[in-house]
Amino acid sequence: MKKYKNFGLLVLALFFALPAAAQLGEERHNFAVGINGGLNMSTVSFNPKIKLNTLNTMSAGVTMRYMSEKYFKMMCGVQMEINYSQRGWDEKIEDESGNSYSRTMNYLEIPFMAHLAFGKDALNRGVKVFFNAGPQIGFFLGDNEKINWTTSTTRPEHGKEVENKFDYGITAGAGLEVSTGIGHFLLEGRYYMGLSDFYKNSKRDYFERSAHSFIGIRLSYLIDITK
């Protein structure tokens, strides 16, 4: 678990160092807000390991972005979102029992990311390539289990309630932005790696690790409030 946290801190330090280096650039004061929505291809890192399929879930929320600097061809800013996000897992059953189990977990998630863009200035129309990365926190709202289990014994995770309702990790993504006269349209691929466990992980507990991860596809629409 420690190596995951160290890796996450290193990624964040490197990424946030880039906007800091741009403070000698040309100032921008461009604030935009909008909506986002998309698909999460979710799984969970369990230890002891459980064989899983990807669980397709949804995400939707509000996006706020502030662009503060332009340094040569790189535009720097920050982006925050408040999302309703579903995660979870679907267990891979490799026998012929007909058993199945999946759990969808609902979170209020808040990523706070550095935003770097290359291409046409945000004040003009055109296409840009962008990168996002930063920390993310989440608050567990509830879950839904789908179980069809015909054998007499179930697994330790079946019916087990979430014990840690605060989630945190790092998220990073890249995509394309098309700026038009009616707003900004963004298509992004994003990855989230959880650094926390939703089950207790002491020596007397069954699971040493139970952390979320997902690959997301996001479509966002932003309109400028200030330029």
Automatic annotation (TrEMBL):
The organism's place on the tree of life at top rank: Bacteria
InterPro entries the record matches: Beta-barrel_OMP_2
Pfam families: OMP_b-brl_2
Keywords in alphabetical order: Signal
Domain Outer membrane protein beta-barrel positions: 22-198
Residues making up the signal peptide according to the UniProt record: 1-22
Protein name in UniProt: PorT family protein
